[in-house]
Design brief:
The chain is 29% helix and 30% strand. It has helices at residues 13-23, 30-38, 83-94, 112-120, 149-152, and strands spanning 4-7, 42-48, 54-62, 67-74, 103-108, 124-129, 140-145.
Length: 154
């Protein structure tokens, strides 16, 4: 699918909230997204159609030794078209010059589709956070991705 990837702005939050509500049982609040947009250590990317409709996003925050993938979602009717992959690969490109970076995230242990996607992108399971999700106390798989040699050379 041909989409334009660009940084999200506060004016995009209505569409972000819509995608978030259809994607997660315990969606982030608007104030959480707004706070991430305002943090200098965060990066928020959106995928937009040719009609400027937001169809996916990724929010990441930089910590001491890693970029933490905080939230990735794609609108239901646009899933399985490579949008999440494109967003995460752009993240890897944008952060390629960061010498302290690796990438980490948590994902529901039951979300096999997301786990397969992350593994395809080089993430590996490194542990479990017991009872991490507040809606049902489901465990989260902790995944980590080291920079690839070609990214380190960037």
């Amino acid at each position: 699918m041909n989409v334009e990837l660009r940084r999200l702005e506060t004016g995009d939050l209505d569409e972000v909230e819509e995608i978030e509500r259809e994607s997660y049982p315990t969606p982030w609040s608007r104030s959480m997204f707004d706070a991430e947009l305002r943090k200098p250590s965060s990066l928020a990317l959106g995928a937009f159609t040719e009609r400027d409709r937001l169809v996916g996003y990724a929010f990441v925050s930089r910590y001491v030794d890693a970029w933490h993938v905080m939230n990735v979602a794609v609108a239901d009717t646009y899933r399985r078209r490579g949008i999440a992959v494109a967003l995460l690969e752009r993240l890897f490109d944008v952060t390629a010059t960061d010498p302290r970076r690796g990438y980490t995230l948590e994902v529901r242990v039951s979300n096999t589709g997301a786990i397969a996607l992350y593994e395809k992108l080089g993430f590996e399971a490194r542990g479990v956070r017991r009872g991490y999700y507040t809606d049902n106390r489901e465990d989260a798989l902790i995944m980590w991705r080291e920079p690839t040699p070609s990214e380190q050379a960037s």
